[in-house]
Design a protein that fits this description.
Structural class: mainly alpha
Order of helices and strands: HHHHHHHHHHH
Radius of gyration: 20 Å
Number of helices: 11
Distance between the termini: 66 Å
Number of strands: 0
Length: 249
Amino acid sequence: MSNAVLLIIIAVLSYAFGNVNWARIISGLRHKDITKMGSGNPGTLNMSRNFGLKFGLLTFFLDILKGVLPTLVSYLVLSGKTFKGSDFYVSDLAIYLSGLCVVLGHIYPAAFKFKGGKGIASTIGVFLVCEFVHGWQWGMVNVMALIAAAVFIYITEFGAMGSFIAITPPAIGGSIRLYLTYAQSASDINVILCIIVNMLIFSICLFTWFAHRKNIERMLSGDEHPTSIKSMVVKRRAEKLQKKEENKQ
């Protein structure tokens, strides 16, 4: 099977996998519809606000996994293969193509009339694979970005801006890695493929940023919904204490 056919299959399956929305599934299991609660966004922060930090984190990790699985499979399937006439690895294009399609499937799912989430957790999962498969030092860019995002959200309560902090450094890191890997080759094919992959990286960020356009407008006007991790933790502790009291009775 040719590389082109494999890339098309990867793109289609990744988009289909991206249509799986864990926030809808989890809220549905609790006989509620997350799209009709709070901000209406079927994502981590809205789940945390309406169902508590536990369900928010569960949604977050499942959405990260949604980005990890198809991207990792794409890498493993095409690992070691190069494009004809170049030394450019097909997997370097495949992982970002898969990632973009997963994110598009999450934000614009055909299964839900193209109304989905905002794609941050899935993008984090995509970038985790894209960097870690090329070495722990690149993967640490993702880890540090996640820590910085969590600290920023905890202190400022600006969830959307924290989301941008989580995905932007890994995107830049991926672009730098591509340059360092293929900079020594001056072949036209490598240059063209590097440009294409960088466009895929930029597109992943662009679609997630665009999905947050209303959050950006609210931040600029001072009307953005606060994302208080401290309040969520306090609420969670209160619920545990209440359950303990009920069990004693």
